[in-house]
Design goal:
Length: 71
């Protein structure tokens, strides 16, 4: 029987999980978070995805630059 630490590690670390024997993998309880697979479209909608940029209207204010030259 696996310890709770080993179970959690197996849930989080695919390489570790694959290193377990077939019997140990079969004995693992299902991850409480379940399998989560999102499409690219779903990922784009979540926080942290690319935001659609709104076009900004150009400002009509003028910036004045003055250059002074010394003779």
């Amino acid at each position: 029987m696996l310890s709770m630490t080993s179970i959690v590690r197996a849930w989080k670390d695919d390489e570790y999980r694959q290193s377990l024997s077939e019997a140990a993998r079969a004995a693992l309880p299902q991850n409480p978070a379940g399998m989560v697979e999102l499409t690219d479209g779903e990922l784009a909608e979540v926080a942290g995805g690319k935001k659609k940029r709104k076009k900004r209207k150009k400002s009509r204010s003028r910036s004045r630059s003055r250059s002074r030259s010394r003779s």
